Amino acid sequence: MQDHRARPLLAVTVALFVMLPRVGFGAADDKKRAEREALKASLMQVLQREPLNASRVGVHMMSLDDGSVVFSHNADELLNPASNVKLVTSAAALVTLGPEYRFETEFLVETESDGIKARTLYVRGKGDPSITTERLYGIVSDLFHTGLREVQDIVVDDSWFDAERTPPGFDQEDSDRAYMAPTGALSLNWNAVGVFLRPGDTVGSKGVVEIEPQSDFFVVENSLTTGNARSRRFSVASDAAGAQQKIIVRGQVPHGGAYMSVYKKIDNPPMYFGQTLKQMLTTRGVKVKGKVKQGLAPQKAKLVYVAHSDTFDIILKRLNKVSSNFIAETLLKTMGAEARGVPGTFAKGIDVVEDFLSREVGIPRGTYVMKNGSGLNDANRFSATQLDRVLRYMYDRFPLAPEYLSSLGIAGKDGTLRYRFDGTEAVGRLRAKTGTLENVSALSGYVQAAGGEKFIFSMMVNDYPGRSGPVVRGLDSLGAAVASVGSTMGPGRTVAELASEEKSSTPMAEVTSRVKTYLALGSQRDARNIGFLRTAWRSERDPAVRAVVAESLYQSNPQDYLGVRTLLDSYSAGTDVYGRLRSVARELSVEVPGLGSMVELAASGNAEALARIIELAGASSGDAASESEMVEGLGAVARTAPEELVQAMRTASARDREATTTLLARGLVQAGEAEHPFWKALRKSLGSTDTRLAEFSRTLEGTLSRKVAEEKAPRPLVPVQIVAPAVSTPIGPTSAERTAETRPGG
Description:
With 746 residues, this protein is an alpha+beta fold. Helices cover 45% and strands 17% of the residues. The chain is built from 25 helices and 18 strands. Strand 9 and strand 10 form a beta hairpin. The longest helix is centred in the N-terminal third of the chain and has 25 residues, at 23-47.
């Protein structure tokens, strides 16, 4: 029988339980609220610092665990996302094409071919962006094993895409750099070519230029010479030449030095592919008697071989981890061809992406601007909120989420984030896509904080003053703060420590000693030193020493974009870097550390290095030794990157431009060439359709001509009173006579 006396006791117990504070849940909620408030305060602290406080900044962060907005700052403002556009392109491509999609390249012959001899070998491309020299040689071997031994002509069929090679936004930059490579239904090596340079046997001998891959597609103009150990100042240009590509190499490389490589875009993808195929067929033992031509494969042609790419999820990693503009734009046309019909076009591809954003993600057409798939230049506008919506959608779409997330760079580990976030909780926890353009920096992606909570974030900075380095450090501080939620340090201490890199007042004797050590490491040009140098660069607080470490990083692997970026961000014309390094140079009797590397970058046409060289010219005024070094450096730049130097001088400050013009005039006089490349570039700029550039060039020509004339003019002799000696002994030349003997042109 039930004991009814227990009922009042049960009721009282339940009532007491309800009235008691919910210690477990309440404490957890309170802790979470405290962490969120600490995070918000830390993020605002970063945004209030220079240069972010003087920039247009959009930030949006969400918790993937509970869906709440953790932080928002101008999150709905449309900003230039730079390469963060690739997050949108890759999401749409993954949904449209699927992770198992494979690109095909078809090889066909006439129906009457006997399998050994073919009158024509047709190659029909379907947009494969992953064919390299190595893959193509494997394809050639497979063709050889089909029995093919002789071919008359090779016809390359590029009709899967339309004839428009470059999308909107690319036309804003006149450059032959590899990241500007055009699209093609038949493409090779991301439509870039490797140009390898090495010195000759003796100083003064002709330098060696080799092309990889080599074929009749290239015409090489080589004026490279072999100089002394400091002569590493050269330029490589790539120009369209009808069905061929002209490679122009100027400058000097150091005697006894290792080979150097430069990568440039090509302008005719199908002919690049076809000529390389011809060369490889010949090497493999297949006779090619005729020519390479562009055309269409006949409908009745017989298919003999199909080359398949890796699955799309593999290609996606190269797109996002290394930020390949070429793959992004190729994907646009591929989506257009697959979803809207052949030929694939940029417009069709954009339509597919916009349909995906509207139908799948819930971002209406017209609320953003998307003109291309890579994010290049001033062509696109998205808000931080919109990018976060894409990230959230892809995270929730489980079958595709692993492929999408694994395509992003991992902080401190790989891709464009390999050398970022060092020493913070973000290393290994944060996956994101970077974005970098002039006055634009962005970072968007995922992070699992130290406490276990998962977040998505999008951060974009536009129109910032000065260099990109402080902006990148600001974005890294924001990301590191989120990653530290739940750690013993927390976001507050993380942000404080990252901001504590104050300029050191290291004694000059110690600075000189450390600089000497790092210069020795850099002179080894050994990529194995990079790990140590990266650690040293992070730990150094003296800006002058830090700049020399950055130069040693660059010299250890000049082809590494991140090493170039570190040098450009670390080296400045201020007294704390260039000023102190001039003192070190006098103490060690060497050229100012870092100057040679900066000249080398500027001579290759690097826009930021050119701007820095002009600032250094201004800072050298009044110091005879520094001016002499700058005369030599500007002379090298004017010879190998004359057009780029004109552009850089145009945007420089009046003070720096005046100093640069004076030193450049001295260099032109010393060169003694009536047809110096700089004069040719200046005359070319006079006829520019850019009226402001033409007007500036006209003014510069007049000023430079006047300064050159002043440099050539005889200098007045200073009268010196000679007192005859008391004894009649022969005397040497007077001071005036010595001056006359040593005066240039006297």
